[in-house]
Design goal:
Blueprint: H1 16-36, H2 41-60, H3 62-69, H4 72-77
Helix pairs in contact: 2-3
């Protein structure tokens, strides 16, 4: 009789902050590849937001995600999501 196949990770899960950094790195690579292939940045952003919100809704539910995004206007206006380029 054959042994069952295990799909468990080969190593222990990373701490939350390291997982977020790794995820951001993967997303940056995917964006760079898509932009290289001619996908418009606005299309990427909208598709990414859709995918992100769909994942959050699937995990936490619609009400929790709606409450979470209520604070976005202030955070956006305060520059929390702005990327500032250093000028020399």
């Amino acid at each position: 009789m054959s042994q069952p196949i295990s799909y468990a990770p080969a190593r222990a899960p990373l701490p939350d902050h390291e997982q977020k950094q790794a995820a951001l790195g993967y997303l940056n690579e995917a964006w760079a590849e898509a932009r290289h292939d001619g996908v418009d940045g606005d299309c990427l952003a909208q598709a990414s937001l859709f995918a992100a919100f769909a994942e959050l809704v699937g995990t936490y539910g619609e009400d929790a995600v709606a409450k979470f995004v209520e604070g976005f206007p202030g955070r956006i206006r305060n520059g929390e999501f702005s990327v500032t380029l250093a000028r020399q």
